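Page 42, continued from yesterday. The earlier attempt failed because a stray header line got pasted into the input along with the sequence. Redoing it now with the clean sequence only.
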Amino acid sequence: MEKPTIVIALGGNAILSTDASSTAQQLVKLIQKGYQIVISHGNGPQVGNLLIQQQVADSKENPAMPLDTCVAMTQGSIGYWLENALLKELEAAGLKKEVATLITQAVVSENDPAFQNPTKPIGPFLTEAAAQTLMNETNTLYKEDAGRGWRKVVPSPKPLSIQEHQIIKTLIANEIITICGGGGGIPVVGKELTGVEAVIDKDFSSEKIAGLTDADLFVILTGVENVAINFGKKDEQKLKKVTVKELENYIKQGQFEPGSMLPKVEAAIKYVKAKPLNKAVITSLEKLSEFGEQEVGTEIVFE
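This time it went through. Structure tokens are written below.
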């Protein structure tokens, strides 16, 4: 019998430094239960730090790396941290498994409307004056970010496909633990896979990976155990099991914060609509070890 495959989307905050041991411990507990896992991850904190370093050192002799290259760099560094943490925990658990990190490109459309409306803030916070100077000099767009300062904003297009999805399927077939889709994938366009200055939401690229690899389960990890409606209010209600239609109604009510829970819910809906016999789960990293023993987090089902 084939092992069920789970695609797990980790947030960048789950791997804030080179110490990814606590994350690896939770993932190994799943492997011990017989699951084949594919891990995707965010890179928000890491690519933000890298962009600051690039900006500080930028000169004619040593120009800053473009954003798509920075995403590739963080895929390598985070994959390296997580891969070694997993190998250490696998050895401690007495499991002989191979782990591979795959540089992953997400194909997007040049005509995606996101390119006409950049909304994704990246990089350091600046004063308004500094932001205005850069906008005049570099033809880039900066916006105020929640009163904390001005930040560069870039497009966040939806992924059409994952260039390396067949390779991921091969790794799964050979029971190799796969780390891929880092930072939402490197955004590329056209047959030549030309890199573009954009950031892809890792929840949407993870959904695309789950669908293209025929995963049995799609899990999105976040900072809370359950999706909730009326979040933070007296009548807050945690959702245990919810249908696609119910979630779509909650979205219409404005229940989920854009840039936070909303993309996670939308990605889960997209996966379940494409694979109506499967389910998606949104929960916290700490709840991963309970999979297979009891109902965990918020389960999204077709009907």
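Notes: The CA atoms of residues 6 and 37 lie 5 Å apart.
Reminder to self: strip header lines before submitting.
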